[in-house]
Write a structure and sequence with these properties.
Blueprint: H1 2-7, E1 27-29, E2 32-35, H2 37-45, H3 47-57, H4 61-79, H5 86-105, E3 111-112, H6 120-129, E4 133-135, E5 139-142, E6 146-150, E7 154-157, E8 160-165, E9 168-173, E10 183-189, H7 196-211, E11 221-225, E12 230-233, H8 235-257, H9 261-267, H10 284-293, H11 305-313, H12 319-324, H13 335-354, E13 359-361, E14 378-385, E15 393-401, E16 405-410, H14 414-434, E17 440-442, H15 446-458, H16 462-470, E18 474-476, H17 477-482, E19 485-487, H18 494-497, H19 512-529, H20 536-572, H21 596-614, H22 626-641, H23 644-661, H24 664-668, E20 673-675, E21 677-688, E22 694-703, E23 717-725, E24 728-740, E25 743-750, E26 762-765, H25 772-789, H26 801-806, H27 828-836, E27 842-846, H28 853-866, E28 871-874, H29 878-890, E29 898-901, E30 913-915, H30 918-927, E31 933-936, H31 938-941, H32 944-947, E32 951-956, H33 964-970, E33 974-981, H34 1002-1007, E34 1018-1020, E35 1023-1024, H35 1029-1039, E36 1045-1046, E37 1061-1067, H36 1077-1094, E38 1099-1102, H37 1106-1118, E39 1125-1127, H38 1129-1132, E40 1137-1143, H39 1156-1159, H40 1162-1169, ...
Length: about 1200
C-alpha cells in the first residue's frame, strides 16, 4: 500500500467547490419565468424533462406528490454533500484552480469578483468599472415572458488576452480599446471534449452581454477545456441555435401553463423518450422506475429510440404489446428486424413473469467457433478513469489465469499508464509465446480499443498489439454471446448475464460507474495521507480509508475477470460449442496484394525502419518552450508522414472488418457500403489472374435500398460480402459495371468455387493504397531534412518549401521580402510579381466560389512558361489537372509545352503531349529543350522519371482537398510550391486519424485555425465574379467572415420576375430520412417556375442523399426536364447556374441518417448555395431547424441554418 501511496503523489485535486449555474432553477415569479442553462439544454433535448420542470414550477399537486420522494432524496444527498456528480466536482475544482492561477499571475485589481456569487448588479458594476477579469459573476437576459440567469466563469475585457503560459492560465493586455469597456465570455469545463450544452451556455451569456450593451464587437467567445486548451466560437456558430432553444423552452412553458393540467397529465409520460436524455434529467431515478413499470419499448435489448418511434406509429406501445403482437412486419422496419425484436421482447417478458433467468440458443450459433480451452488462457478486463485530463486514464489492467490467479498492473498518471501498458503487454506476450494455443478473453470492445489507443498515444507496443489481432488471440465474448444466445435481459452486459451462469459478486464496488467514483476518491485519499500539512492522525485515517478503497477496486476488477472466465466456461457447455474452432479464419487473401495481414506487416516493417526518426523526441521536455515544441511537432509530423499510407491502408481493413459485421441500421448511415437484395446471377465465366491461377467471374444484378447513402459508380472496385452461416461473413473482390435507379450490376471474382454457393448481401467500396512512389519520396524527404536539421532543438532548415509549409512560414521573397499589394479588381499582376520573388518557399491563394482561381492559376502558368520557367501542376483528380491544362492553353500556352500521362484505360485524345505512363512522360520531358508544363496526380509527380527533370514551381490546385502528406511527397519536384484552393469548400477525406495532424489537407494545414488566409501568407481573393450581392451576403456570412464581396458585374445576374437572393421554401413533413416526396414535388414546382425564363442549363438541383437525387431525377424526366442537372454537392463543385434549388430532405435532426454534422455541414452548404449566380431556394422541413443537439456540430449546424433562414426571403 505504501507503494500505491507514493504512486498517487500529486494526484490529489482540491475539491473545494463553488455554486454552479443551477443555483437559479426554473421558477415563476409573477408573469415571468426564470430559467438557467440546464433548463435550456433540457428544452433542446427532452420534452418530458421540460414539461416536468414547468409542472413542478407551477406546483401541480399530482406532480408534486409524484416528485416528493425524488426531491427528498435530493435534499438528503445535498445535506451529505453528495448532490454533485463526479464530473461536477472535478469541474468546480478545475474552475477554482484556473481562478487561482489568474489571481496569482496578475497584479492586484486585475481580477475581481462580486461580493456575492452570481450577483448581477455587482457584476455589471465591475464591468462598468472596466475590471479586466471578472469571475463568479452573474448575468441575466430578459425577454417579454422569461428571464435567463446564470454565472459565467470568466468575463474578459476586450483588449485583454486569456492564454496558457507554461501550462498555467494567465492574461495580458494586448491593446487598449477606446470607449466604454466591452466583454468576452469564457467558460471553464473540466472535460477535454466540448459538448453541445457548453456552447449553448456560452451563447446565452453572449446574448445577456449584448442585451446590456457590454458585448465586445467582432470577438470570439469560448471554452477553457480540461486539457488546458481553448476553443473559441463565432457568434454565428452558436447564438442562433441558442435563440431557437430558448424559443422551444418558452413555447413549452406557454403550452403547459396555458392549458388544462388534467388533460395534459392524462397523456403525460413520466420518463424520458430515451435513456440518453436522463443524463440531463432532474429525476433520472423516476424515469428509470417509470420506464420499468410501464414496460417501455426501450427496455427491449437492442431497441433504440428510432425503432421505438416506428413501432409506436404502428400501434405497439410497450414491451408486452411487442411480444404479443400479431403483426409480422411494420412500416419502415424489415421483417427480420421486427422478428428479432419481437422474440427478444417475448423472452424478456417470460423472464419477468417467471422471475427466472431465461435464455435460448440461436440457430447456427457463433459459439461453434469459440476457441478451445488452453492452460495459458487469460481473462482480461481494464478499468478507465474518464476525468483524467486530455483523454482519460487507463488505470488498471486486470487479468485472471487458471494457474496463477489474479495479476494486475496499476497507473495513477500518464507516465505510469505508459509503464503499466508496457509491463502488461510484455507479460502478456511472454505468456502467449509460452502457450501458442492460448487466447485473451474479454467482454465487449473496450479492451481492444483501449490497447490500440494506448499504442498510438504512447508510441509503444504497436507491433505487439497488431500481432495479437493478426493471430486472433484477442477474443471478444460479447459478439459470441449476441450471435449465439437470446437472453431475457434488457441489456447484454456481463452483469446482466451473471445470473444465468450463477456468478455472485461480493465486492463493495458494484458497477463501472461506481468504480470511477471510487477511484477518484482513492486518488484524493492517498494524496491526503501524504499531505504534510495535515496532522499525523488525520494522515493515518486517510491512509486506512485509501487502503480499504484500493482493496475494493482490486476486488471489483478481480471479480470482473473471474466472471469473464465463468462466462466462457458456461458457453463451453452449450451444444456445439468450440466444435468448429479454426474454420472461421477462411478469408480470401490469395491473389490480392491488398489484405489485412499484408498491410499490417508492411506497417510493422516500416515502423521498425523509421524508429530512429523518433529517438530525438523520446524524452522531449514538452511544455517548457512553445518555440521548441513547434519544431518538435514538425519533426514528429515528418516522421509520422512516412507511415501515413500504410496506416491508411491498415485503417481501411479495420473499417472493413466493422462493415463485415454491421447491421441493417448501420448500413443506412454508411457512405461507403450498401445492402443488396433480390440478387440474380446473369453471367459466369473464367479467367487467369497474373499468377496464372484460375479465377471464377460471376456477374449479378441486385436491388439496393433507395435510402442508401453510398453512391457507387460504374468501374468502382468493391468488396462483396456474403454470409456463410453462424453469424460469420466472408468476402470476395469485384467491380461495379452498371448502376440504375435502385438497381446495380456487378462482377464477383473468386478462386474458390465454393464461395459461389453463398449469395452476396452487401457491397463495400474498396480503396487501394498502392503508394510506393509516394512512399519513396517521403522517405527521401525525411532523410534529407532530418540530416540537415540534426535535432528538433536546432534551428529548423530554411529554403525548403516543405519545411515552410509544415512550419506555416510566410513566403520567403527576395528583395524587400513583402508580397506585392493586390488590386482587388485584378489580383494577377500582384500574384505574378510575388511569385517571381519566391525563394524556395510556399505561397497560398485562397479562392472562394466564383473568384477566378482557375483564371489566376492558368495565366500565372502562361507568364512563368513565357519567362522560361518550368511548372508542375498537381491535384487529386485527373479532371481537375486537365481543367487547369486546358485553361493554360486558353491563356496562350503552346500545347507542345504541356505533358501529362493518361489515366488507366483512357482512350480519349488530348491536344497536349501524352503517354500511357508517368515514366514515359518523364522521359519525353527530358528530351524537351524548352520550359515545360507537366500535370498529374501525386502518383505521377512522385514518379522517378518525372522527378529527374527540374521544375521551378509546383502548383497544387484544389489544395484544400490535397492531403498534407501528398504535398510533402511531391514537394521535392520543384523549388517553390503554390497552393490554390479554399478550405471552406469540400475537404479531403482520409481513413484514419494520424499523429502530427497529417489527416489535414495541404492548404488546411498551412492556414491552421484561420478561416481566411492571413495577410502575408498569400492572397485571399475577396471578390467573386459569380454571386450576385444578394446571394453573396449569406455565403460571405456563412464561410468568409463577411469579407467576400461581389464584383459590380454580378449585378447583371438578374432573372425576370424575381429579385436575386436566398429564398426559403418550408414544408411541413415528418419521418423522412433520405427521401422526401414532399420536397420532390416542391423542387419540380420551382423548376417549372423558371425553366422557360432561364433554360434547363441554368438550373442546378442539389440534394444531400442519393435517394433524393434519384427521386428528383425520376420526377424531372417524367416532367420532360431531362436536361436539368441534379446531384449531390460533390458533383457540382466548380459549376454554376442562375438558379440553384437545395433540398435538405431529412424531416428533422433525428431523421438525418448521419446526423446534422453532415446534413448541415458548413462546407457543403457553402458549395451548394454558392453555385447560384442569382437565386437559391432552400427547401426544408419546418421541423429541421428545431433544436435537438447531440453534438457541438449540431449546435453549429442549427445556428448556420437558422442564420441562413434569417437572411432568406419568403416565397410569394
Amino acid at each position: 500500500m505504501q507503494q500505491s501511496n507514493q504512486r498517487a503523489r500529486g494526484a490529489r485535486q482540491d475539491l473545494k467547490v463553488t455554486p454552479s449555474c443551477d443555483t437559479f432553477p426554473m421558477h415563476k415569479n409573477g408573469d415571468l419565468w426564470f430559467f438557467n442553462t440546464r433548463d435550456l439544454m433540457r428544452a433542446a433535448t427532452c420534452e418530458h424533462c421540460t414539461t416536468l420542470s414547468v409542472f413542478h414550477a407551477l406546483q401541480v399537486p399530482e406532480v408534486e406528490l409524484r416528485l416528493a420522494p425524488e426531491i427528498k432524496k435530493q435534499k438528503e444527498r445535498r445535506a451529505k454533500g453528495e448532490d454533485k456528480s463526479l464530473p461536477q466536482k472535478y469541474g468546480d475544482a478545475f474552475e477554482l484552480k484556473l481562478t487561482e492561477e489568474l489571481t496569482t499571475s496578475l497584479p492586484q485589481g486585475a481580477v475581481a469578483r462580486p461580493e456575492k456569487d452570481g450577483d448581477v448588479a455587482q457584476t455589471l458594476e465591475l464591468m462598468h468599472q472596466g475590471v479586466p477579469i471578472i469571475y463568479q459573476g452573474g448575468l441575466e437576459h430578459r425577454a417579454p415572458h422569461s428571464v435567463f440567469k446564470g454565472k459565467p466563469d470568466f468575463l474578459v475585457k476586450q483588449g485583454w488576452l486569456l492564454e496558457f503560459v507554461d501550462g498555467l492560465l494567465t492574461a495580458r493586455l494586448q491593446q487598449e480599446i477606446p470607449g466604454p469597456p466591452k466583454y468576452i465570455v469564457w467558460d471553464a469545463k473540466y472535460s477535454s471534449h466540448p459538448k453541445p450544452e457548453y456552447a449553448l451556455q456560452v451563447a446565452i451569456y453572449v446574448e445577456a452581454l449584448d442585451a446590456q450593451g457590454l458585448k465586445a464587437p467582432n470577438s470570439r467567445h469560448g471554452l477553457i477545456l480540461g486539457n488546458r486548451t481553448m476553443m473559441s466560437f463565432q457568434e454565428g456558430e452558436i447564438v442562433p441555435a441558442t435563440r431557437i432553444a430558448r424559443q422551444e423552452l418558452e413555447q413549452a412553458i406557454a403550452r403547459v401553463s396555458g392549458s388544462a393540467k388534467d388533460s395534459q397529465l392524462e397523456s403525460f409520460t413520466w420518463h424520458c423518450a430515451s435513456n440518453r436524455d436522463c443524463e440531463i434529467c432532474e429525476y433520472p431515478e423516476l424515469c428509470k422506475d417509470d420506464r420499468e413499470a410501464t414496460k417501455d419499448l426501450l427496455l427491449v435489448a437492442g431497441l433504440g429510440k428510432n425503432l421505438r418511434a416506428k413501432l409506436n406509429a404502428a400501434g405497439i406501445q410497450n414491451l408486452s404489446e411487442l411480444a404479443r403482437s400479431p403483426l409480422e412486419k411494420v412500416p419502415d422496419v424489415t421483417k427480420a428486424t421486427f422478428s428479432k425484436m419481437q422474440k427478444q421482447a417475448a423472452l424478456q417478458l417470460l423472464s419477468m413473469e417467471t422471475n427466472q433467468p431465461e435464455h435460448e440458443l440461436l440457430e447456427d450459433p457463433l459459439l461453434q467457433f469459440l476457441p478451445r480451452p488452453s492452460a495459458g488462457d487469460v481473462f482480461f478486463d481494464m478499468e478507465g478513469f474518464p476525468y483524467f485530463p486530455d483523454g482519460g486514464l487507463e488505470y488498471l489492467f486486470g487479468n485472471w489465469t487458471r494457474d496463477s490467479g489474479f495479476t494486475d498492473f496499476w497507473a495513477v498518471d500518464r507516465a505510469e499508464e505508459k509503464q503499466a501498458f508496457i509491463q502488461f503487454m510484455t507479460w502478456l506476450m511472454d505468456r502467449m509465446d509460452k502457450h501458442p494455443d492460448a487466447h485473451i478473453f474479454h467482454y465487449a470492445s473496450y479492451e481492444k480499443t483501449a490497447l490500440l489507443k494506448l499504442a498510438n498515444r504512447h508510441g509503444v507496443m504497436g507491433p505487439e498489439v497488431r500481432r495479437l489481432e493478426q493471430d486472433k488471440r484477442l477474443v471478444d465474448l460479447y459478439p459470441i454471446v449476441t450471435k449465439s444466445l437470446r437472453i431475457g435481459e434488457p441489456k447484454y452486459s456481463i452483469k446482466n448475464l451473471e445470473r444465468h451462469y450463477g456468478f455472485k459478486r461480493e465486492s463493495e464496488v458494484t458497477n463501472a460507474s461506481a468504480s470511477i467514483d471510487e477511484y477518484a476518491q482513492w486518488r484524493d485519499l492517498v494524496a491526503g495521507s501524504i499531505d504534510l500539512t495535515l496532522g499525523d492522525q488525520e494522515q493515518e485515517d486517510l491512509g486506512l480509508r485509501a487502503q480499504n478503497l484500493y482493496h475494493a477496486l482490486h476486488d471489483y476488477n478481480k471479480e470482473d475477470v473471474i466472471s469473464t472466465m465463468e462466462l466462457y466456461d458456461w458457453l463451453l457447455t452449450m451444444p456445439g460449442a468450440a466444435s468448429r474452432f479454426g474454420e472461421d479464419g477462411k478469408f480470401q487473401e490469395d491473389d490480392s496484394e491488398e489484405n489485412p495481414s499484408a498491410s499490417a506487416l508492411e506497417l510493422q516493417e516500416l515502423e521498425a525502419k523509421t524508429a530512429r526518426f523518433f529517438l530525438p523526441l523520446k524524452n522531449w521536455p514538452w511544455g517548457e518552450s512553445i518555440e521548441l515544441d513547434i519544431k518538435a511537432k514538425v519533426w514528429e509530423t515528418l516522421a509520422h508522414s512516412i507511415l501515413f499510407y500504410r496506416r491508411e491502408d491498415v485503417m481501411f481493413w479495420a473499417d472493413l472488418q466493422i462493415r463485415m459485421n454491421q447491421d441493417e441500421e448501420a448500413f443506412e448511415k454508411d457512405r461507403e457500403a450498401l445492402l443488396i437484395s433480390d440478387v440474380t446471377q446473369i453471367n459466369r465465366s473464367e479467367k487467369l489472374n497474373k499468377k496464372g491461377n484460375l479465377v471464377h467471374v460471376v456477374s449479378y444484378q441486385a436491388n439496393y435500398p433507395k435510402e442508401s447513402i453510398y453512391n457507387p459508380s460504374p468501374g468502382d472496385e468493391i468488396i462483396i460480402r456474403f454470409p456463410i452461416g453462424a453469424g460469420l461473413q466472408n468476402r470476395n473482390f469485384g467491380k461495379v459495371t452498371e448502376v440504375a435507379q435502385g438497381l446495380i450490376t456487378f462482377s464477383r471474382d473468386t478462386q474458390d468455387p465454393d464461395d459461389l454457393f453463398y449469395q452476396p448481401d452487401a457491397l463495400i467500396k474498396f480503396q487501394r493504397f498502392l503508394a510506393k512512389s509516394k512512399q519513396d519520396e517521403l522517405n527521401n524527404l525525411a532523410e534529407r531534412i532530418t540530416e540537415v536539421w540534426g535535432s528538433p532543438s536546432n534551428p529548423a532548415p530554411t529554403k525548403n518549401s516543405a519545411m515552410d509549409l509544415l512550419l506555416r512560414r510566410r513566403p520567403r521573397l527576395i528583395g524587400d521580402g513583402q508580397l506585392a499589394q493586390a488590386d482587388p479588381s485584378n489580383y494577377l499582376p500582384a500574384l505574378i510579381e510575388s511569385v517571381g520573388k519566391m525563394d524556395n518557399t510556399v505561397l497560398a491563394v485562397q479562392g472562394p466560389p466564383g473568384s477566378g482561381k482557375t483564371y489566376l492559376a492558368s495565366h500565372l502558368i502562361a507568364h512563368l512558361l513565357a519567362a522560361g520557367k518550368s511548372v508542375a501542376v498537381g491535384s487529386n483528380s485527373h479532371a481537375v489537372v486537365e481543367n487547369v491544362l486546358k485553361a493554360a492553353m486558353e491563356a496562350g500556352v503552346n500545347p507542345a509545352q504541356i505533358f501529362k500521362a493518361k489515366k488507366t484505360k483512357d482512350t480519349a485524345e488530348y491536344p497536349w503531349v501524352t503517354a500511357s505512363s508517368a515514366g514515359t512522360i518523364g522521359k519525353k520531358i527530358a528530351r524537351a529543350n524548352h520550359a515545360v508544363l507537366v500535370g498529374g496526380t501525386a502518383f505521377a509527380l512522385s514518379n522517378k522519371e518525372v522527378r529527374s527533370n527540374h521544375f521551378d514551381y509546383l502548383i497544387i490546385d484544389e489544395a484544400a482537398q490535397f492531403s498534407l502528406v501528398d504535398a510533402l511527397a511531391v514537394s521535392g519536384i520543384a523549388d517553390n510550391m503554390i497552393l490554390f484552393g479554399d478550405p471552406q469548400q469540400l475537404p479531403q477525406v482520409v481513413q484514419a486519424t494520424h499523429p502530427g495532424g497529417l489527416e489535414n489537407s495541404a492548404l488546411g494545414h498551412y492556414m491552421g485555425d484561420y478561416e481566411i488566409l492571413p495577410k502575408g501568407m498569400g492572397y485571399f481573393v475577396e471578390v467573386t465574379r459569380r454571386l450576385h450581392p444578394n446571394i453573396n451576403a449569406p455565403v460571405s456570412w456563412l464561410s468568409y467572415e463577411n469579407k467576400l464581396r461581389s464584383h459590380p458585374d454580378t449585378n447583371k445576374h438578374i432573372i425576370q420576375g424575381i429579385a436575386p437572393g436566398l429564398y426559403k421554401a418550408p414544408i411541413n413533413h415528418t419521418g423522412n430520412s433520405t427521401f422526401s416526396p414532399q420536397e420532390v414535388t416542391k423542387v419540380i414546382e420551382l423548376v417549372e417556375k423558371h425553366i422557360n425564363e432561364v433554360g434547363a442549363e441554368e438550373i442546378l438541383i442539389v440534394a444531400p442523399f442519393n435517394a433524393q437525387v434519384n427521386a428528383i431525377r425520376k420526377a424531372l424526366d417524367k416532367a420532360n426536364h431531362q436536361e436539368v442537372a441534379v446531384g449531390t454537392v460533390d458533383k457540382f463543385q466548380g459549376q454554376e447556374g442562375l438558379v440553384v434549388i437545395y433540398s435538405f430532405t431529412s424531416s428533422s435532426s433525428q431523421d438525418a441518417p448521419r446526423g446534422l454534422g453532415f446534413l448541415l455541414d458548413r462546407n457543403r452548404m457553402n458549395v451548394a448555395i454558392s453555385r447560384a449566380k442569382s437565386v437559391c431556394y432552400l427547401v426544408y422541413s419546418t421541423n429541421l431547424p428545431k433544436a435537438v443537439f447531440s453534438s457541438l456540430e449540431d449546435v453549429k449546424g442549427i445556428s448556420r441554418l437558422a442564420g441562413l433562414l434569417g437572411m432568406a426571403k419568403e416565397l410569394d
